Amino acid sequence: MLGERAICEGSSSGLAITADQQHQQQQQQQQQAAGQAQPGAVVPLSRYESQKRRDWNTFGQYLKNQTPPVSLSHCNCNHVLEFLRYLDQFGKTRVHSHGCVFFGQPDPPAPCPCPLKQAWGSLDALIGRLRAAYEEHGGSPEGNPFGNGAIRTYLREVKESQAKARGIPYKKKKKKRNNQTMMMNNMNKQQLQQLPNNNNDTNAPLTHIP
What we know:
The protein is an all-alpha fold. It has a domain at 47-173: DNA polymerase, domain 1, CATH 1.10.150. The chain has 6 helices and 2 strands. Strands 1-2 form a two-stranded antiparallel sheet. The longest helix has 39 residues, at 2-40. It is extended, with a radius of gyration of 36 Å. The termini are far apart.
């Protein structure tokens, strides 16, 4: 009986040790799996970064479809301008022509056959993303075709033409600042004119403050 009891006790303790070992092994495996998952975990991109990647891929595909294909290293501002005009066919903004009866009306009462184009704000944001993506892919800021002056001129012309066609008032901030500066200068002149004339005291000694 004693021998059987000893055998039973030994068997139960052996089972307990085996269960503990299995539990420890499971914990170690879980920790290893968690440690391996953290470095390789894919961090979701922000909305801006995702859109910037899509825009960059779209522009690269546009260059490849040219005849002959154009590499990014040989891309210039002319290719960017052609790309912006190419995108107009996918636009959703109605831009009235000069001959349209709704030209200059912000809320036309009826539809018209005027073409749909890309809105100025969409093009401006697109150029900003592509300009950043170009430099992130090794391009130099000095040779960035998306920051060329011709691109800024084109965007300004699109903004002004769409503002007139859609009846949206367009105000230049620079003129507003200049007007404020002129008003301040006029106020300063008026204040100076109201000051007493002390021309005779220009050579008078300064008052001594004890």
